[in-house]
Amino acid sequence: MKYSSLMQYKLAILFAMLSVAFCFQGVSPAYAAASGLEKQLKSGKKDIHFANASSGDIRIRKNVSVTGDNSKAVINGDVRMENGSTLRNVTVDAKVVGISVTRGASVTLINVTIKGASDAGIMTQSGGGTLTIKDSRITKNRKGMYIHPGKSLAITNNDITNNKEEGIDIRNNVSGTIANNRISNNKESGLEIVVNGSSLSVSRNTLVGNTASGLSLQSYPKTSKSGNVTVSGNTLASNKKFGVSCGSPSGGKKPAGFFSNSIHFAGNSFEGGNSGGNIQKVCGVGK
Q1: Domains of the chain from N-terminus onward
Q2: What are 78-96's pLDDT values in tens digits?
Q3: pTM for the full model?
Q4: b/e for 245-275, b at 16 or more Cβ within 10 A?
């Protein structure tokens, strides 16, 4: 190749040297430009903004807020969130667990898309703290969310769709609110709750097209504690089993009236029907 000037020749040499340097470091120029998020997380900043794709798992430490500044703000990896942390306006292209919440932590997710996790889109450990999720999309994971005992929930205005198992799987002794969500086309039940010791309001959600029941209320024989679950103003339709089902997955029977004493129903709609029926008889409750 011929160069028209000495300057062009020097620029070509410089470009070649930079390319070689990136190759020896095992880093492409594109990845280097995207590594800003990880650097900011290590910097000690409490309010972090980024606008590029970030590769690799990240940890959002205590009281740190991470905000994506445009549609290209993507985390290609899993995210671990500590107490007081916030994630907003970001897509998490997950590997195993998209968002894992440390034990006892209160965290917030706003306008976050979580997809592709081989385990769960969101998983909490047993213990206290509040999980707040709003205006988000949880899709195409194995489970959408897996909530362990002791958590308080504020789950509002989200789309939880097309997950390979439950949209939301909630264990016992969980409290809070699940409202105004669309929970649809999941391959098991849309929303599954272990009733024992739980105090939850489930209101104004749309639970449609799930492969099992729209809402599955469960109890385990070794746990006799009743619950306080209010189910009101929801639409439950076109689910493959029941609109609402009740049972003990591991077998055994609950005392007479267990579900009817633990669950309070009001003003739910079953437009379009459900293949197995609207409310399973063992629930002992009406609409």
Answers
A1: 69-283 (2.160.20)
A2: 999 999 999 999 999 999 9
A3: 0.86
A4: bbbeeeeeebeeebbeebbebeebebeeebe
